[in-house]
Design brief:
Layout: E1 6-10, H1 14-26, E2 37-42, H2 44-53, E3 61-65, H3 81-87, E4 89-93, E5 96-102, E6 107-112, E7 115-120, E8 126-132, E9 135-143, E10 145-149, H4 157-160, E11 172-178, E12 189-192, E13 197-201, E14 209-213, E15 216-218, E16 221-228, E17 234-238, H5 244-251
Parallel strand pairs: 1-2, 2-3, 3-17
Antiparallel strand pairs: 4-17, 5-6, 5-16, 7-10, 7-14, 8-9, 8-13, 10-11, 11-12, 13-16, 14-15
């Protein structure tokens, strides 16, 4: 059996940094650019930053929870780390690609593993026109915003605004409004994973709106186009008994 070369990174919190210190004392480690596996210590936010940072190299990432949520993380334990890595199951995630144009005509691109959201910046509600694959589906939504979520991200912000939880293999994305005022009864839609969603901001200079792809924010946008990018793949490693598919399924039965 080939022992994987590991690098260990930690969130900038005292508990995560202390855990990294203990693990590095117990295991041989290598620099990040030489690692077969990156062990990330923190919460879901730190996991997202780690995935984005190491996207180009595509090194698999095994997270252990040293944060507040940890939905994308395994349970923290200092015992048998190498054995856990050997048995871990890989999950391939494809991100959303956001192409946003601001009111000055500048274009911005970013990737999102969880969701792309458009959010009002001021006291005034946003007015958004929504198109799917170039077809107008809603001429105007008056709301705090809207988002498009991946299955992996469907348990995050999407779920907190009453969007559906999506199993990983479902092949769909969740389009969910955020505090919709009109049409009041619209609760969102499930779309094929290949759909292209366009958010056109109505009156973007008066009713200013920002676009957020995970933690990348673009202010004062006029138009945002989002679709899944199958050419990009992230690899997460999970303990078999706590894999991501099981977590997403289990989350749907929480009281």
């Amino acid at each position: 059996m080939t022992v994987p070369k590991i690098a260990i990174v930690a969130a900038p919190t005292a508990v995560a940094k202390e855990a990294r210190k203990r693990l590095m004392a117990a295991h041989a480690t290598v620099p990040l650019n030489e690692a077969d596996v990156i062990v990330a210590l923190g919460g879901d936010g730190f996991m997202l930053r780690t995935l984005h940072k190491h996207l180009r190299k595509g090194t698999p990432i095994y997270g252990m929870n040293q944060g507040s949520v940890g939905f994308l993380m395994n349970q923290y334990s200092e015992d048998r780390l190498l054995a856990r890595l050997e048995r871990a199951e890989p999950i391939q995630l494809h991100p959303l690609r956001m192409n946003a144009t601001d009111t000055a005509g500048r274009r911005h691109r970013a990737l999102a593993i969880n969701e792309v959201s458009v959010l009002r910046e001021t006291r005034m509600a946003a007015k958004i026109r929504i198109l799917v694959d170039g077809v107008e589906r809603l001429p105007e939504v008056i709301c705090d915003g809207a988002l498009l979520a991946t299955p992996a991200g469907s348990t995050a912000y999407n779920y907190s605004v009453f969007g559906p939880i999506i199993p990983l293999g479902a092949g769909v994305l969740a389009l969910t409004p955020i505090s919709a005022y009109r049409p009041r009864r619209w609760r969102g839609a499930l779309l094929p994973h290949g759909a292209k969603v366009t958010f056109e901001i109505l009156d973007p200079t008066e009713r200013r709106v920002s676009a957020v792809a995970d933690y990348t924010e673009v202010r004062e946008v006029a138009r945002v186009v989002v679709r899944e990018d199958r050419s990009v793949s992230h690899t997460l490693l999970f303990d078999r008994e706590h894999n991501l598919e099981e977590r997403i399924l289990k989350e749907q039965f929480q009281p």
